[in-house]
Amino acid sequence: MKTYLAKAAAGAKSVALDDMILTTALPTTAGSKMLDGYCSLFDATVVEKLQSAGYSVAGKLNVGEFGFDVIGESSYYGAVRNADGSYASAAALALDEGGIDAVVTVDINGAPRRSAAQSGKVFIKPTYGTVSRYGTVAVACSGETVGVMADCADSAKTVLGAIAGYDCKDGTMHAQSKIDAALRDAKPRKIAVLTGFDTDAEGQQKIEAFKAACEGAGITVEQADGTLLKSASTAWNILMCAELCNNVSRFDGIKYGYRSKDYTTIDELYTNSRTEAFGDELKAAILYGSDVLSTKNYMPVYDKALRVRRVMVEALNKLFEQYDAVVLPACSKMKYADIDVAPYAVYTENLYTAPASISGLPAVVCAGVQAVGKAFSDGMLLELAKTAEEGK
Amino acid sequence: MEKTTLISLEKLNQLRLTDEQRDSVLAFFDAQSGRLAELNAIDTESVERMVHVMPIMTVVRDDVEKKLFTRDELQKGAPETLDGYWQVPRLVD
């Protein structure tokens, strides 16, 4: 069990990075045998921004292979567990170890949100396009976002302020003025708890406590129907796997990464390198992504998922006409045992995180609960997180 | 999905599964196909596809040549090189 895959000297202001973020000083593996020992020639933009803001990188943290799993269980370097044997993320354990202000981590399929909910940390998944993805290992580019996990909302906000900002190297970024607006403080006034997202008893208690904290702070809390948003999971699975399939096609054992020793022809080199280096869950995702993009399935499956994405975004925006944020669990239960991270479990466990993943909307996890806001409401969501912290 | 179709997908993606892995992947495919009914129940007849979640700006940079990395640097992580080239098996006899 490895929390840190590589460590460096921590400074007065330090952060750890998940191993999806490229660094020149430390290797980047994406939790995969394919990139074991790989050293990048350049730093990700978020690393440069952190260093400019006076942060040192204390180390690189274990992640599930290419970061799209439940909580890190598919890492080539082994899963990370809590003392009681339940599964944990390296990010949460690194924060518990201390010595760092925060963890900067890529949210592809909700793993950091599930981890923050279960460990009592704060995680902010910012509005898509407010933090540069240049220099992160690409998996599901249309929805993945670089976010911040910390012990409290204030720390998350400080580090988010350091990494957010326009970067001409990322073609999906917003103008600086919009990014500044996203980070501005705003008080939430009215929120809704979404129905239709069941969780275990402990998770339900956390929702009740969150509601009580908000009501205690003068925020109106209502209920709203979230049934339609449950379809975001199926649509996101299709889009995520399609994008993943294309993004990992670059790993072929030629220019960098793992190369099989067992080959005579070029096709054997490609096939044996990828077969030996990729884990089972990744192979299944590649094959599914390839299938949904096939001539037969492109229109009825992939194109349908793109249209459903718009339906999800419109449904969320309609809710935001009435509410500042919608609240839902981040996971089905507050502890994961082996069965919860079994192969393919992530495709149903992302029920709770897919609405924000597919829409690029900001989400914050605090006190075990997830709140999703409209685009550029990141500052407001962090205020909401503070309210929940204070009400604990 | 038929096993033969899965084997074609493996070839396309330069992967090779064992028979046991194929059974597992086929069950996964079936589960995902079963979920499509949920999407098909949503009327998207007049809905435009959404590829990008936010408006995308075209990034324009000055047309200035920049030398980022040398060949030696680029080949640092290469599994096998020979005389400054990436080494691969013979492609043409």
Overall description:
The complex is a heterodimer of chains A (392) and B (93). Chain A is of the alpha/beta class and 392 residues long. Chain A has one domain: Alpha-Beta Complex (Amidase signature (AS) enzymes). Helices cover 38% and strands 15% of the residues of chain A. Chain A has 13 helices and 13 strands. Chain A has helices at 45-52, 90-97, 111-119, 153-163, 176-183, 201-216, 232-247, 266-277, 280-292, 298-322, 346-349, 354-359, 378-390; strands at 4-7, 14-18, 56-61, 80-81, 87-88, 102-107, 122-125, 145-150, 190-195, 220-225, 325-328, 363-366, 369-373. An eleven-stranded mixed beta sheet of chain A has the order 1-3-2-6-8-7-12-13-11-9-10, sandwiched between helices. Chain A has a two-stranded antiparallel sheet with strand order 4-5. The longest helix of chain A is centred in the last third of the chain and has 25 residues, at 298-322. Chain A is globular. Chain A starts with a strand and ends with a helix. The mean pLDDT of chain A is 97. With 93 residues, chain B is mostly helical. Chain B has a domain at 3-40. Chain B has three helices and two strands; from the N terminus they run H-H-H-E-E. A two-stranded antiparallel sheet of chain B has the order 1-2. In chain B, strand 1 and strand 2 (85-86) form a beta hairpin. At the A-B interface, helix 7, helix 8, helix 9 and helix 10 of A face helix 1 and helix 2 of B.
Notable traits:
heterodimer, A: 392 residues, alpha/beta, Amidase signature (AS) enzymes, 11-stranded mixed β-sheet, 13 strands, 38% helix, globular, B: 93 residues, mainly alpha, 39% helix
